[in-house]
Amino acid sequence: MAFIRTLMTPLRAPLRRLIASWVEFRLIEPATDELDLDPTLPVLYVLPHPSLSDTLLLESLCRARGLPPAAGLCRAGEIALPACLALPSPRRHLWRRASRREEAPFLALLEQRRRHPEHEVQLVPVSVFWGRAPGKRFGFWKMLAADSWQFTGRLRRALSVLLNGKNVELHFGAPLRLGDLLDERGAALANRKAARLLRVHFRRLRTRVLGPDLSHRRTLIEGVVRSPEVRQVIETLAEEERTSRARLQQRALRYGREIASNMAYPVLRFMDGLLRRLWNRLYDGVEVRGLERVKGLAGDHTLVYVPCHRSHIDYLLLSYVLYRDGLMPPHIAAGRNLDMPLIGPLLRRGGAFFLRRSFRDNRLYAAVFNEYLHRLLSRGHPLEYFIEGGRSRSGRLLAARPGMLLMTLRSYLRRAAGSGQQRLAFVPIYIGYERIIENASYQRELRGGRKRKESPLALLRVLGQLRQPFGRVAVNVGEPLTLADYLDREVGDWRQTLGEERPAWLTPLVPRLGEELCRRINAAAALNPVNLVALVLLATPHHAIEVSLLERQLALLVDLQRHHPGGAHTSLPEGTPVEWIDQVVALGMVERRAHPLGDILVADAGQAGLLAWYRNNVMHLFALAGLVAFAFRHQPTHRLDTLEALLSPSWPILARELVIEPPASLRAALAEMLDLLVDQGLLERAGEGWRRPEEPLEAGERLRLLGQLMQPSLERGYLLLAVLLDAGPGELVAEELAERSRQLAERLALLSGLDAPEFFDTRLFANLEESLEREGWLWREGERLMFDERLRRAAQRSRELFDPALRHRLQLLTRRREA
């Protein structure tokens, strides 16, 4: 080996220049100007294993970026070591087993540092990936092309450099000082500790970037079918249906092939290049925020991404963002309707696995799917699914469906009961668009049109829209939820029930988990020019507003979020209100009409219908501000006590409808919001209370526009309570209450000239009824809904929010319904 190193010495310079000219970095993380290096201390770079190509690449990068040199020697006191070292790898020989792994080469430095504390050295771990292939047991690309979990030999690494030189990632670790490793136990132990810490770092990073090894698809499917859980179902069905076990086993294999993904590195590379061109053509940019929270977990947690579902683009967008930023793309749960010719095989090789909409009555399919999901999770593969079940046609975040969450929890408990504690974290993702490609289809379906079946022909129609402007996209990462911590908080003694197949606490916990994840998704909402303009414009009676007033109202909304954010990870748009309005006009979402006294922004009926979808994406951010503003619509003055009494019955119901986390203290939140509205000039202090300003008149108009945001939700609540109270206790079932309320809301919309089908969506009234039950205002006796005088008093108090004209209109509507 020494002879080979001596022979290679004169070749290092030309090889380094060759690699520098050939290689293109697709990712350097962190950026070289963000490295936390102490310029007064020598730097020793550490690679995970010996590699000439990695060393030469690092040397050229350090020269080009002005970093401490990785070539030559690193001198610290009396000791000089190569500036770039590698942890020793076990030596393998044909005639004997691999030798034990050698110790890390820092012993001399540590002994010197113990004797002379002034001779400090900082170790910088460096990982280089020539391509990123998820490991498989078979396949030509496994032998030839890219980095996987199996370290490469010299020939394969040379071919990898040649084939993947344009797709290289380099990751720097946080600097590690030798002094932090030393203690009273001596340098030898500190040397082993350094090796252990570095190997853990490198292993976690490889897990984050490459994911765990993938089994061959056929091997995985056969393992699923041979599992005890699936075999038990086959045995049971064979006896019940008097069917041969061989036939049932073949059916299970067919189900496995229908479900399983077939992730392939060439397809990931192809999709990365294709999607990069698509986003550049389709969007003005993709903004990603909060991904560092994911990277902190990816090395030692199984990640389950739970994004909101707004568009078919969601599938591709998140995988592209993760791959681009150095994370392993997840396996994605996709509806079987997407397993169509041409598209299905491509998605399957990109990591999609397919499931049927419902398989409650097919025990064998359910067993195969559960076992497949369990094997993905137990092996640490990142996963992605949409807890809403389907895309939101109204723009609101839909209620979480329990199916995938329940299966994930059961897999987690099964793994924890078997081989020990498994770390699993849910990662909520908010995806916000300035314009979606499904605009027209959503509006058609909201008006009662039939949902069209996905097909390659439909995809071709979508491709015809690529020349249209679609603005920017935001991908915001919410606060991750570590499942063990959540179970400790919500259940406490869950570990004592690990042996049970379905513990009593599991079923009621799943809806609470879904609600928590939905709140975390909404707490990461992204404000953009389109949804901001939609919030203001749709609050006007005729969907028209002076541009000057619109600019001030847009600035108000952003200031409210800046000082009192509606979510922990909410993001605000860059630029000015003038630029935001120009952007919305350029996207064709509104029309700007010139006028001698000042331009006016107008939305026709079609545009208003589209804007409602974008308004509903973010309306939850302004729930408290809108509710406080609405309270001053009828009554010009409020004290804090009276305002709290007025809003407290409505607030929990509204918070649940809009999927937000209620503040710990409504009173404190109200006081803070009132002071903020005073700072914005929309309210004035009046003795011990607050009042609506009489001058200027524009302040009153801006307060009215803000309060109008919550009026539709409050009107729906008013109508539902009117139907319920007029019928009396025990007279209605939940479905009848929702349908009668929907009919009234539809009539109100028609009489008001409101072209907004989502206003009278039956699901909104069903959720309202459920919220009343959660808060204890309603309960069931059998199927009948019961209530007492407490609900009547609360409803009477809530009616005081409405001004006499609006209250009269709603009362007239309900009385006509009774007649």
Short account of what is shown:
Helices cover about 50% and strands about 10% of the residues. It contains 34 helices and 24 strands.
What would your notes on this structure say?
With 819 residues, the protein is α/β, with parallel strands linked by helices. It has 34 helices and 24 strands. The strands form six sheets. Strands 9, 10, 11, 12, 13, 14, 15 and 16 form an eight-stranded mixed beta sheet that branches. Strands 1, 2, 5, 6, 7 and 8 form a six-stranded mixed beta sheet that branches. Residues 92-100 and 135-145 have low confidence and may be disordered. The radius of gyration is 31 Å and the shape is globular. A hairpin with a 2-residue loop joins strand 23 (779-781) and strand 24.
Keywords for this structure?
34 helices, six-stranded mixed β-sheet, eight-stranded mixed β-sheet, alpha/beta, 819 residues
Q: What is this structure's SSE topology?
A:
Blueprint: H1 2-8, H2 12-22, E1 25-29, E2 43-47, H3 52-65, E3 73-76, E4 79-82, E5 84-86, H4 107-115, E6 122-130, H5 140-144, H6 154-164, E7 168-172, E8 176-177, H7 187-210, H8 217-226, H9 228-241, H10 245-259, H11 265-282, E9 285-289, H12 291-298, E10 302-307, H13 313-324, E11 331-335, H14 343-349, E12 352-355, H15 363-378, E13 383-384, H16 403-419, E14 424-433, H17 439-446, H18 456-463, E15 472-477, E16 481-482, H19 483-490, H20 506-522, H21 529-537, E17 544-546, H22 547-563, H23 577-586, E18 591-593, E19 600-602, H24 605-618, H25 623-634, E20 637-639, H26 640-647, H27 650-657, H28 666-679, E21 684-686, E22 689-691, H29 697-708, H30 711-727, H31 734-751, H32 762-774, E23 779-781, E24 784-786, H33 789-799, H34 804-818
Helix pairs in contact: 2-3, 4-7, 8-10, 8-15, 9-10, 9-15, 10-15, 11-13, 15-16, 21-22, 21-24, 25-29, 26-28, 27-32, 30-31, 31-32
